[in-house]
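Forum > Structural Biology > Help requests

Title: Can anyone predict the 3D structure of Acyl-CoA N-acyltransferase?

Hi all, first post here. I have the sequence for Acyl-CoA N-acyltransferase but no way to get a structure on my laptop. I'd be grateful if someone could post the structure tokens.
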Amino acid sequence: IGVVYVTMSSIPREVYVGVFILPPYRSRGCGMRACALAVQWAIETIDAHRVQARIMSSPSRESAQRLFTALGFAHEGIQRRAVCDAAGAWADITHMGIVDVDWVVRKRRRAAPRNLWDELFERHQREREELLRWEANESSMRIRRTSSMETVR
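Reply #1:
Sure, ran it for you. Structure tokens for Acyl-CoA N-acyltransferase below:
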């Protein structure tokens, strides 16, 4: 029905994961289950610290982003016009990643974000809360608070 793969990166303890599911079998959870097993194997068996997905611009890009977001991957950026597609046109690559600690604690968090924007805003809020806790515990303030640290409303 498709293929899932894990390949080594040139960076120690980092791997790439990818998936392709044939059209008749899409939207049945097969890709989600296969990727979850691949990430679990990479982290628990081969001791990967970081798993990265690179998603090429295509009609199925948004569904792939939803799949990896639901698994706990964070959006890390877009590499514009990075590779040539099958037709020879330049295509963007979306980078998403998860580290071993996030994979282990993902079940303790609330439900997975519905989309990429929810994931970005939730991560921003979480990082802001961590910064505020750090500031409260820090006796001598070494950094100065700026308006850029405020949550976007």
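The mean pLDDT is 85. Residues 116-137 form the longest helix (22 residues).
Shout if anything looks off.
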